Amino acid sequence: MPELPEVQTIVMELREAGLIGCKIRSVKVQWDKIVAVPDAATFAQELTGQTIAGFARRGKYILIQFEAGKYLLLHLRMTGQLIIKKATEPVLKHERVVFELDDGRTLRYHDTRKFGRFYLVNDPQAVIGKLGWEPLEAEFTVQSFTAGLVQHARQLKPLLLDQTFIAGLGNIYVDEALFAARLHPQRLANSLTKTEISALHQAIRQVLQKGIANRGTSLGNGEGNFASASRRRGRNQESLTVFRRTGQACPRCGTAIQRLIVGQRSTHICPKCQQLKNKHKV
DNA sequence: GTCTATGTTTGCGG
DNA sequence: TCCGCAAACATAGA
Is the peptide bond before A38 cis (omega within 30 degrees of 0)? Predict the structure, then answer.
C-alpha cells in the first residue's frame, strides 16, 4: 500500500516528531523474518545504544541513519506501518518490531501481513543501488525519460511499476498518472510521441506531489490501510480520479470507469480518455 | 462460514 | 528481454 507519497509522509513526520538525536534503548523483534539483514538477534544487538542521526526516503524505502554510520533501511511492502507511541502503550498483536527510545517513546513496526523487511547495513547501495529515477528529483527530466522509454518494448504500466526503471510508483499512482496523461496502460513504452512523453512525465510528478500534499492515500477502514507515523490517515483518496472507481463517472468526460488486468495487476481506466492505439513514433 | 481480492517484491520457467 | 505465475501472509468484503 505505501507508495512514494505515503513513505514521504512518514519520513516527514519522523523528522517533525523530533526523533533525531534519540538513542535506542532496546529493540524487540517479535517476528524474526521481518529482519532481512542481518539475523534478528544481531540486528537487535547492533542497534541497541545507537543514536538516530536522520531520516530519508529513496523510492519506497525509509532510510534511518545512525551517528555511528550504519543505515537502517525499511520497506513497508503491502501493510507495513512505522508508528510513534508512548512506551506505556500495550504492544499490539501485529507490532513486529519495537524500538524503545531514551525519551519514553517507542517506534513500532506494525505489519499485518508480515511482508515488510528491515535491512541494517553499512552501505545503503547494497539495498537500493538498483533503483531507477527518483521522480521528484531534478535528474528525472523529459530527456532522460524519453531515452529510457525508447529502450523498452514493454507495456507502459508494468514498466512504470518496475522500480529499477522509476522508483516509488505503485498501483494507485500509476493508474492515476496514466489517466492524467490520457494514456492506455498497455501502450508500448517505445511507441509514445514526444507530446505523450511530456504529458506522462508531468502527470507522474503531479500525481505524486498531490499525494504528498494530501499526506498520502488511505483506502477503506481496515487496519492494513495507510496510516502515518502519528497514526493519521491521508486524504488523497478524495482526489483519486480512476483508482478503485469502477463504474463511476470519469471526472473528465463522464464515461464509466473500467477495471481490467494489466501485468497481473488490477487496473482502472476511462475507456474513452485512454484508448489503446500504438501510434507510430514521431 | 466460505471465497476472492489485495496497494509489493522476488524468483522461476517459458 | 519480456511475460505469466507463485509465493511470502492476514484481513476485508462479498
Answer: yes
Q: What angle do CA A237, A137, A179 make, to 5 degrees?
A: 40
pTM of the model: 0.96
Position A281 pLDDT exceeds 60: no
A244 Cβ contacts chain C strand, under 7 Å: no
Cell numbers 539495498 correspond to: A127
Give how many domains chain A has, as a whole number: 2
Are residue A86 and residue A180 in the same domain, yes or no? no
- Distance in Å from B9's C1' to A168's CA comes to 13
Instruction: Look up the domain containing A15 and give its range.
Output: 4-128
pLDDT digits (tens, 9 = 90+) for A56-77: 999 999 999 999 999 999 999 9
The CATH number of the domain holding residue A33 is 3.20.190.10
User: Distance in angstroms, CA of A25 to C1' of C5?
Assistant: 44
CATH code at position A164: 1.10.8.50
User: Do A257 and A151 belong to one domain?
Assistant: yes
| Cβ atoms of residues A144 and A201 within 8 Å | no
Dihedral of the alpha carbons of A38, A44, A46, A51, in degrees to the nearest 10: 130
Those residues whose C-beta lies under 8 Å from the C-beta of residue A268, and which sit 6 or more positions away, are A175, A179, A242, A243, A244, A245, A246, A257, A258, A259, A260
